[in-house]
Amino acid sequence: MTDVTAAPVTTPGSTATATARLLAEAAGAVDAPDLVLAVSRNGVRTVHTGGSAEPGPVPRELTAYELGSASKPYAGLLLARLVAQGRVRYEDRAADLLAPGFPVHPAVRRITLRHLLTHTSGLPGLPADFYPQAVPRWSTDPYGGYPADRVVRAFLRARPRHRPGTRWRYSNFAVSVLGHTLAAATGTPWEVLLHQQVLAPLGLAATRVRPGPEGTDAVGHRRDGTPVPALDTGGFTAAGAVRATPLDLLTFLEAHLDGPEPLDPTLNAALTDVCRPLLRRGLRHAHTHTLTWFHHPSPYGPVLFHAGATLGQQAFLGFRPDTGLAVAATATRRVHRADTFVATAYSLLTETP
Q1: What does the DSSP 8-state code read for residue 83?
Q2: Average pLDDT score over residue span 137-143
Q3: Strand pairing of 243-244 and 287-289?
């Protein structure tokens, strides 16, 4: 792997030097055409960029990467802010907001916004009729042929497998429905709503839900190094469409770590709300979650994190509230069984003093 190190926002000193060395060592464990490992310690940033491919015209730390499921914390923060503003409530029933008066299964009628976001709605990971159209193009464009109206129809005719609020099952379907529900409740398209309520207030000018100008987006790769087309999420935008530069990812994470005070107190309230432990699942309820983040213990205090993957890219976001540490990582190779990307990024978050 050929590494090119960049630290555009770090400051000199022994701590920064040690962090830069740590990131360089960690990068050696990940094989990807493009790789960025970025750390913020109480606002002091260190960024390592590298990979097996030659750098492109735009520096890797300023290139937008597909976040896949790591988009969900953005959806969660949006919901939390709308709740803080009094525009919706966590207990609001999604079907009532999305299609008032439409006849649905009683279990669907009970699904709330909180259920959708916390993967406790009883809905499957994807709609049952998603797969026939997706399988023939599974490695190129599985989502693009399933638009927003189809996601909504699938929800309204769904038969949840479990009573809402009783089981945890990860669901791109549910979070996508949340996005369409919030758009309906506010009369604002999801992309506009996310920009108004989250991206613009946090200064995330390099974060978006669509591909940017030519040359500004990272190109994903299959395991064999073959490039893959840019992701089209179809009607599943809220669950996985966010693209962001590593520097914007750090800004997003720093906002959860008592960063610069947002002007609007509802954003402060939302940032607090999404960090609060909310539910437990698994054997002996060992796994803790907030509204949007996986929540694990570490020797240095709790860590909150979320990973994501698309057809040819991966992302990891995490932070440690007690010590002001944030880790953002991106790579342009599809996840595979022996992949080390998430484990490497997670170790930076949990094992770094």
Answers
A1: H
A2: 93
A3: unpaired
pTM (2 d.p.): 0.95
How far CA 292 is from CA of 38, 60, 213, 307, 338, in Å, comes to 21, 27, 30, 11, 27
d(CA 339, CA 353): 25
For 248, other C-beta atoms within 10 Å of its C-beta total: 24
Distance of CA 245 to the CA centre of its chain: 13
C-alpha distances in Å from residue 301, one per residue of 43, 295, 304, 320 = 18, 10, 10, 7
Contact 70, 315 (CB under 8 A): yes
- Amino acid, single-letter form, for residue 43: G
Tokens 């990307």 belong to residue: 341
Cβ–Cβ contacts within 10 Å for residue 324, how many?
Answer: 16
Cβ-in-10-Å burial (0-12, 13-18, 19+) of 351 comes to exposed
The mean of the pLDDT values for the chain is 93
> Does residue 181 contact residue 97 with C-beta atoms inside 8 Å?
yes
Taking residues 40-47, report their average pLDDT.
Answer: 96
Q: How far is CA 28 from CA 176, 183, 344, in A?
A: 36, 43, 10
282-306 residue pLDDT tens: 888 889 999 999 999 999 999 999 9
Tokens of 267: 């954003």
> Considering only CA atoms, which of 216, 218, 208, 239 is closest in space to residue 306?
239
Hey, which bits of the chain come out as E strands? Answer: 2-5, 35-41, 44-51, 65-66, 207-208, 243-244, 279-281, 287-289, 294-296, 303-309, 314-320, 325-331
Mapping DSSP onto H, E and C, the string for 241-302 reads CCEECHHHHHHHHHHCCCCCCCCCHHHHHHHHHCCCCCEEECHHHCEEECCCCEEECCCCCC
In tens, the pLDDT along 17-31 reads: 899 999 999 999 999
Rounded Cα gap, residues 332 and 344, in angstroms: 15
The pair of three-digit structure tokens given for residue 164, joined into one six-digit string = 């809402």
103 pLDDT band, cuts 50/70/90, is very high
Single-letter residue type at 299: P
- Tracing tokens 């089209």 back to the chain, one arrives at 232
